[in-house]
Design brief:
The protein is mostly helical. The chain has a domain of 119 residues: Death Domain, Fas (Orthogonal Bundle), CATH 1.10.533. 85% of the residues lie in helices and 0% in strands. One of its GO terms (cellular component) is cytoplasm. InterPro entries: CARD, DEATH-like_dom_sf. Keywords: Coiled coil, Phosphoprotein. GO terms for molecular function: CARD domain binding.
Length: 305
C-alpha cells in the first residue's frame, strides 16, 4: 500500500520530478478509478497546468469512452507539465479527495497555506478554497438530501424486497406445488399411456373376440340350420308317421266296418242259405207229396184201365 511505503514526514515539495511522478504512477490505477476529472479540472486550470483546450479534450474526446480513460488521459497531460503538474494534481486530491490523497501520499490532508506549492496566489487559493468548501458543503447537503432520498428509497426497496421475499416464498411454494403437480401429471400421463396401451390390447382382443364370435355365430347358424333341417325332417317324418297312423287307423276302421259288413253279409248269406234250405225243403216236401199223389193217380188210372 502507498501509505505504508511513503513516510509520514515526506516533504512533497522537496521531491524531484521523477520521484514525484513515480509516486503518482505507482497509484495511477487507484487514481483512475477513484477520481472524476470534472472535479479536479477547475483547480488544475487555476494552477495553470491545464488549458481550456486540454479541458475540452479530456471531457469531450469521443475516443475516451469512460471516466477511467478520461482520468488517465488527464494524468498524461499533467505529466507533460513536469513537477508542477504532479504537485497540482496532489493538491487537488488533498482538497477534493482527502482519503485518496492519504492513500497516495501517506500524509493527512490540510488546508494550511504552507502545505501548498504556491502555484496559485494566496488570495486566489483562499478564494478557491472558500468556493471549494462552499461547493463541498453544497455537495454535502445534496449528498445528505440524496442520502435521505436513498434511505427512503432503501426503505421502499426493503419493503419491496420484503414483499418480493414473501412473493418468492409464495413462488417457491407454488413452484413446489407445481413440481408436485407436474410429477403427479407425469404419473397420470404414464397411467393414461398405460391405459391407452391396455385399451389397444383390449380393442385387439375385442376385435379378435368379435371375429371369433362371428365365426362361432356362423358355425352356430350352420348348426341351427342343420338342427332346423333335422327338426323339419323329424316333423315331416312325424307327420308322415301321423298320416300313416291316421291312414292305418282309418284303414283299421274301414277294415272293421268291412268286417262288420262282411259279417253282416255272412249272416245275411247264412240266413239266406237257411231260408233257401227251408224253401228247398218246403218245395222238396211239397213236390214229394205232389209226386206221390200223381203216382197214386197214375196207379189208380192204370188200375182203372
Amino acid at each position: 500500500m502507498a501509505e505504508e511505503c511513503v513516510p509520514e514526514d515526506l516533504d512533497l515539495k522537496g521531491m524531484g520530478e521523477e520521484e514525484l511522478w513515480e509516486l503518482i504512477n505507482d497509484n495511477r490505477h487507484r487514481i483512475s478509478l477513484g477520481v472524476r476529472p470534472c472535479i479536479l479540472i477547475p483547480y488544475l486550470r487555476q494552477a495553470r497546468v491545464l488549458s481550456e483546450m486540454d479541458e475540452d479534450e479530456i471531457l469531450s474526446c469521443h475516443n475516451l469512452t469512460n471516466r477511467c480513460m478520461r482520468t488517465s488521459h488527464m494524468l498524461d497531460l499533467l505529466r507533460t507539465q513536469g513537477k508542477n503538474g504532479g504537485m497540482a494534481l496532489l493538491e487537488s486530491l488533498m482538497i477534493h479527495y482527502p482519503a485518496l490523497y492519504t492513500q497516495v501520499t501517506g500524509r493527512k490532508p490540510s488546508t494550511e497555506p504552507s502545505r501548498f506549492s504556491g502555484l496559485i496566489k494566496y488570495s486566489e487559493l483562499t478564494e478557491y478554497l472558500v468556493r471549494a468548501v462552499t461547493g463541498m458543503q453544497k455537495e454535502l447537503q445534496e449528498a445528505r438530501n440524496e442520502a435521505s432520498k436513498l434511505r427512503a428509497h432503501c426503505a421502499s426497496l426493503e419493503a419491496d424486497i420484503s414483499q418480493m421475499m414473501e412473493q418468492e416464498m409464495k413462488s417457491r411454494t407454488l413452484r413446489t406445488d407445481n413440481e408436485r403437480i407436474q410429477r403427479h401429471l407425469c404419473s397420470l400421463q404414464r397411467e393414461v399411456t398405460k391405459l391407452k396401451d391396455e385399451k389397444c390390447d383390449l380393442y385387439i382382443r375385442y376385435t379378435a373376440a368379435i371375429e371369433e364370435k362371428s365365426a362361432v355365430n356362423g358355425r352356430l347358424h350352420e348348426l341351427n340350420l342343420q338342427k332346423v333341417r333335422s327338426y323339419l325332417l323329424l316333423l315331416l317324418h312325424q307327420a308322415r308317421q301321423d298320416i300313416l297312423a291316421q291312414d292305418l287307423a282309418e284303414a283299421i276302421d274301414s277294415q272293421v266296418e268291412l268286417a262288420e259288413q262282411l259279417r253282416s253279409y255272412r249272416e245275411e248269406n247264412e240266413q239266406l242259405l237257411r231260408d233257401k234250405k227251408k224253401v228247398c225243403l218246403f218245395w222238396f216236401f211239397s213236390f214229394s207229396g205232389y209226386s206221390n199223389q200223381i203216382r197214386k193217380c197214375h196207379t189208380n188210372s192204370t188200375s182203372y184201365l
